[in-house]
Amino acid sequence: MKLFLHIGTEKTGTTSAQEWAANNRDLLVKQGVFYSKVLGPTNHMKVYLWALPPEKNDNGFFLNGLSSVDDRRKFQAELPKLLAEEVDYARKLGCHTFLISNEHCHSHLKFEAEVAKLHSLLRPLFEAIQVLCSFRPQVDLAVSFSSTASRSFRRIGSDFFESIGPDILYYNYAALERRWASVFGSGALDFFAFRSEPDTTLALSARLGLDIEEFQPAQFLNEALDIQTIALTNALVDTSGRSSLRLNNTIRAQLDSLGCSERLQLGSDLAKRVQAKFLLSNTDFVNRCPSISLEDLSPDWKRYEVEQNVSMLDLPCPFSEKLIEMMRLQDMHLTLAKISQRVTEGERAIALRNIVNAEKFCQRAEFLFQRLSGKPSANWEIIAKRILQLRKTIERKAKS
């Protein structure tokens, strides 16, 4: 069986391709291609997490419920057997090809030792391995990545783009080629240009030899944040350290729901300064990778021949303190509503004589209540009394 290992890069339609593959798993199997489930239902995050040191606090560990080093070591000890069993299952189904897709292999496996560790997991399972990766001009990658960085509550502005250069491995394609070629061999690398193959789903389909006429079509996602949304996030970042507001997934989801009407624009001068930094490293890259040319890594400059708006992100927000205060109060009221619901569920569980469930709801309510600061409304004292009463009732019922 042959493995196609799709490693990115990020911001080249990888999410759409992964959703497409996951939605068409059964049709893929009919054509002899197995899209892994063990490594993740859609995005195969576990493949890169397995290759990282367990002591590294990568966010992917937390997203997969692996918060402690012991949890991560156990996961890394168990995964080889689980993956081997899945590969064996794919063979029994008559599949000739196994497909793994995870763009974090590009962004998070920064050292040759990590790539080598991944190779040690995969090489014994397959007769051949092909590593697929799409590349786009670094300035285009940076503009696209800025929305992801903003969602992660990183401040975005002119300084963000001025700091980008080949010393940051995320953008250094020559360094990526070297560490993957040194481990998997240059002959195993199928590197292609996003400019000539902008639909990663079609690029994968062609390499897998698929007839996709009956497949569910890929859904292309617009993940860009509006320039004003990025400015709003900057204001939150600038003042959150001086408040009790937690920049969390709830706020991140709200940012995504705001829509995008005006995209971030660097302007021609800044865009050219950013891309010019990569001339030497990109020349090195294309000399080692003949399937890609310098032209492939040159942006469509017409896209940047518009009035820049990035400078508005460098301006201070005059109402940031009040914005933070408003969101902090909103967060507290939402938390109070969650606590009230848990107490109600605990009271209902007692009525049904289910003390075990009542205890769970009470503990959750107490945990949320402890995270509150201040008294946002009269409901604060009312809910405090309800929690206390629920706790006393549980203790009394437990003794009887």
Give the topology:
Layout: E1 2-6, H1 14-23, H2 25-30, E2 33-35, H3 45-51, H4 59-63, H5 69-92, E3 97-101, H6 104-107, H7 112-122, E4 128-135, H8 138-151, H9 158-162, H10 173-184, E5 189-193, H11 200-208, H12 227-240, H13 249-256, H14 268-276, H15 279-288, H16 320-351, H17 355-370, H18 379-399
Parallel strand pairs: 1-3, 1-4, 2-3, 4-5
Can you describe this structure?
Strands 2-3-1-4-5 form a five-stranded parallel sheet, with helices on both faces. The protein is built from 18 helices and five strands. The longest helix has 32 residues, at 320-351. The model has no long low-confidence stretch (mean pLDDT 92). It has helices at 14-23, 25-30, 45-51, 59-63, 69-92, 104-107, 112-122, 138-151, 158-162, 173-184, 200-208, 227-240, 249-256, 268-276, 279-288, 320-351, 355-370, 379-399, and strands at residues 2-6, 33-35, 97-101, 128-135, 189-193. Among the domains are: 2-136 and 168-208, Rossmann fold (3-Layer(aba) Sandwich); 320-399, Up-down Bundle (Methane Monooxygenase Hydroxylase, Chain G, domain 1), CATH 1.20.58.
Can you give the helix content as a percent range? Answer: 40-55%
Taking the sheet with the most strands, its summary is: 5 strands, parallel
| Unreliable residue runs | none
CATH topology of the domain at 2-136 and 168-208: Rossmann fold
Give the beta-strand count: 5
CATH class of the domain at 2-136 and 168-208: Alpha Beta
Q: Give the second-level CATH assignment, the architecture of the domain at 2-136 and 168-208.
A: 3-Layer(aba) Sandwich
- What is the arithmetic mean of pLDDT? 92
Query: Order of strands in the sheet with the most strands?
Result: 2-3-1-4-5
- Taken as a percent bin, the fraction of beta residues is 5-15%
Order of helices and strands: EHHEHHHEHHEHHHEHHHHHHHH
What's the Cα radius of gyration? Answer: 25 Å
Shape: globular
End-to-end separation: 63 Å
Q: How many DSSP helices?
A: 18
Structural class: alpha/beta
